[in-house]
Amino acid sequence: AAMDARAAGGAAGGFATFFTAFFIWYAYRSFDAPRANFILAGIFGALSYLTRNEGLFTFVSMAAVYIVSVRSAWAFPATSPSRKSIFSDDRFRYFAAGAAIIAAAFIFWEIRNYSIFGAAAASSRQNMMFGRDYYDMWRYNPEPGLVNFMKEYFKIGAGQIVVSKIQSFQYKLARGMLYVGFPLALFILPGIKALRDKRLLYPVAAYFVSTYLFFGFFNAHSQDWGWYGAEVLLPFWIILAVAGCFGAGFFSDDRKKRLFGIISASAILLFYSADAVRSHVKNKRDVSRRDAVAKLARFVGDFAARQGNPVMMLHSPFVFNYFRPELKTVQIPTNEPLDTVGEVINKYGCEYLVLYGEIPSRYPFVFSGLYSGSKKMKGFREVLSVPTPAGLSLEGTGRALKIYKIEKSQFAVKGDKK
Asked: What are the φ and ψ backbone dihedral angles of 100, each rounded to 5 degrees?
């Protein structure tokens, strides 16, 4: 039920829940049998990372388990007489093997991103870390570099930065708790108290706290999204809540306590099973929306193929590339003036502009007048206009898909022979 509900937000969320659940299970089992379980935890931690960036923090969770297990062993000198260093414990090699698997997945994925996207891979990440608001995620930076990002970011002032960070932590926690839901939240604390083997809490708490602190601080511009720790851990909230149903302590009589536990636990499981059914029905309904996006991507892809697959400038290029990987796409800088858009066109050799609506931005969208037909812009000649597919729900969707030929001579820098 938890994984189906989590998958309602997209396939990545469902897989992240699945892999993270197995990671925490094997990390927990490594307390008693570290050899195979640390390695299995590393495998599932790596898979979790490959579905969501948050999965990288499975390393923190596994490290917490290792440190706690070693310190617990120190309490029994007969089993572990050496207290010189946590690195001298026999468990360390198994932990290191699991950690190496997660590290290898991280390195592989970073190499893959840089080989495909080049410096833009780092640029997009810096946009998220030092964005001043949501729309900064789509910014274009003619002089990329961490120092330049940070200089521009700190111009907004220390007070505004502090406020945005506090709001980020507040909004993200509120969103996480909203997803967990009141039925679970009511019994989670009693469940922690009633849990027989509290070692399960170490990997869960380490993952929850580390991801919340990191993404709350470094992904502040997104406010209430960008942190999925509470949602990914939903299977464990259900486990704790069910344990809390039987150990809530509302009744002193064991028979009444057991009856209350059965009724309340059944209600919780019924609630989330019903929610899973609702999500499944909703996903079936959303198939029509997916089909609309696929139809739009196919149309743009077929048009590009007829033109020899030129570079297309559009919004949300990853959506189009999902359905048509061969498309050469560049993101429209939604928060920038026409001069900056021209720099992007010239730098990446964009030949066509694709608009399917007026994209929201902090400032008026530079192509609003062009799309609505109320304004003509030099350098853009409309070559195609068709109705957008019914049910299309991309950001800023309008009534028509319009494609414009870009006259690159209007944007070429002086001395550029192109």
From this structure: -65, -35
SS3 355: strand
Distance in angstroms (rounded) separating the CA atoms of residues 333 and 347: 13
CA–CA separation, 355 and 324 (whole Å): 17
pLDDT tens sequence across 392-409? 767 667 888 999 999 977
375 CB-near residues (< 8 Å, 6+ apart): 369
pLDDT in tens, 130-181: 776 666 666 666 555 677 777 777 887 888 888 888 888 988 888 888 777 7
Q: Distance between CA atoms of 109 and 123, rounded to whole angstroms?
A: 16
Instruction: Please enumerate in sequence order all residues whose Cβ is within 8 A of that of 357, keeping only pairs 6 or more positions apart, or say none.
Output: 371, 388, 394, 395, 396, 397, 398
**Cα 227 to Cα 202: distance, rounded to the nearest angstrom:** 20
**Structure-block tokens of residue 204:** 């869960």
- Sequence letter at residue 209: V
- Cα separation, 397 vs 388, in Å, equals 8
| pLDDT at 5 (0 to 100) | 44
Bridge partner list, 354:
403
Tokens of 74: 């120190």
Query: For helices 201-218 and 11-29, what crossing angle results, to 10°?
Result: 140
